[in-house]
Design a protein that fits this description.
With 393 residues, this protein is an alpha/beta fold. 40% of the residues lie in helices and 17% in strands. It has a seven-stranded parallel β-sheet with strand order 3-2-1-6-7-8-9, with helices on both faces. It has a six-stranded parallel β-sheet with strand order 12-11-10-13-14-15, with helices on both faces.
Length: 393
């Protein structure tokens, strides 16, 4: 069996209507699969004006806006018309990318049709609740996730640190790696642009601490702001540059009145924005990989990040960046202060990070997932079945 014999039905809660690292990875995967001769059909909620055009054939799933986060859609079900479409497409493997209603229904449909089904893990959903005063729900959410993932033949994490966490949480008996790649035509040190910095009011010699990502609380915006407060009190000269947009932008702007907000950037503009920073500060603990961390490393920047899944697999502490215990603003401030005051240190760590980023190529990481698809289809055809027991009834 080879890639051209694969027929993959992909189910995701967000394929292209809001841009994020997870759905961009899925679109790159679909593009690679189609290039290898595989057949792919994507099932996801859609909107009238998506963030970017979808790669491949996209079938719309009924959905409603998420309360309080209307930019996201909540899939409702797999209606009969879509089930008929899946039947006509006749997949030989199903891939679910988000553990909500659509994902659960897709797994149930795969089991009824006696098809192998895999899941990819893109974020730590169980940690989101702590940012909205609902941390007490984490154990229950983790148990529900365990029930979901154990019904799949295999699950795939984007980093070894995340894979190890999933094993410790007993999420699956078959945990593989589907990593992330980097587009080196976009993210590289040569994209740095002093003219662009000056257009934002940032001087050539000012040291810029950057943030890149959606402006939502689960990205650690509170920790970021508290750490910058520490630097202000220490009178460490710096400038904060925020790249991204989201519902928490107004809150973030009020917390960081001296920061420059460049808004949403994409493609070559994003590459220019990242390379024009002097370091990246990524305090998030919800990342399973950390695309922005890898992009910054490819641009030759030192990265200060929370010691959490994703970043632990990318950064070697003290060599390609700094890893700090989550929430410790004093330690984050110490690491940022050292980099602000030492240009040679920034250069040394940035060069090491650039070298470390070179092993991440999109074709290589996507081929590893294709090989896993083929293995799982073969196992299924040979009658090998996974244990699907779960502690949640």
């Amino acid at each position: 069996m080879d890639a051209s014999q694969l027929r993959i039905a992909l189910f995701t809660g967000n394929y292209n209507y809001v841009r994020d690292g997870a759905n961009q990875a899925l679109n790159r995967l679909v593009g690679y699969l189609l290039g290898q001769g595989a057949a792919v059909r994507v099932y996801s909620p859609t909107v009238e004006h998506p963030a970017f055009p979808p790669t491949g054939d996209l079938v719309s799933i009924p959905s409603l806006p998420v309360p309080g986060r209307a930019e996201y859609r909540f899939p409702l079900m797999i209606p009969p018309r879509v089930k008929r479409d899946i039947g006509r497409f006749n997949p030989n493997i199903m891939h679910v990318a988000s553990p909500e209603i659509l994902g659960h229904r897709a797994v149930s449909l795969a089991l009824r049709r006696k098809l192998p089904v895999v899941a990819s893990v893109h974020t730590r959903f169980e940690t989101y609740f702590r940012y909205y005063g609902l941390a007490f729900l984490e154990p229950m959410v983790e148990a529900l996730l365990r029930r979901f993932y154990r019904r799949c033949d295999a699950i795939f994490a984007p980093s070894e640190s995340m894979a190890q966490l999933l094993r410790e949480q007993r999420m699956s008996y078959d945990v593989g790696i589907w990593s992330r790649g980097i587009d080196r035509t976009i993210f590289k040190p040569e994209r740095r642009c002093d003219d662009w910095r000056r257009s934002l009011g940032i001087g050539t010699d000012e040291v810029v601490i950057g943030f890149v990502g959606r402006l939502v609380m689960e990205k650690g915006l509170d920790v970021f702001a508290d750490t910058i407060d520490q630097l202000e009190r220490r009178q460490v000269r710096h400038k904060v540059l925020v790249v991204g947009h989201g519902p928490a932008r107004e809150w973030f702007e009020k917390r960081l009145p001296g920061a420059v907000f460049a808004g949403f950037q994409a493609g070559e503009d994003l590459g220019r924005a990242v390379a024009s920073m002097d370091m990246l500060f990524n305090p998030s603990v919800t990342e399973t990989f950390g695309n922005v961390t890898l992009e910054a490393m490819a641009a030759g920047l030192p990265v200060v990040a929370a010691r959490a899944t994703g970043s632990e697999s990318l950064i070697e502490d003290g060599v390609t960046g700094r890893l700090i215990t989550p929430g410790r603003t004093q330690a984050f401030a110490d690491a940022l202060q050292a980099l602000c005051l030492d240009r040679e240190m920034r250069c040394t760590i940035g060069v090491a990070g650039l070298k470390a980023s070179e092993r991440y190529g999109w074709d290589q990481v996507n081929q590893e997932l294709v090989d896993a698809y083929i293995r799982i289809v073969r196992q299924h055809q040979a009658g090998v079945r996974v244990t699907r027991q779960s502690p949640v009834p």
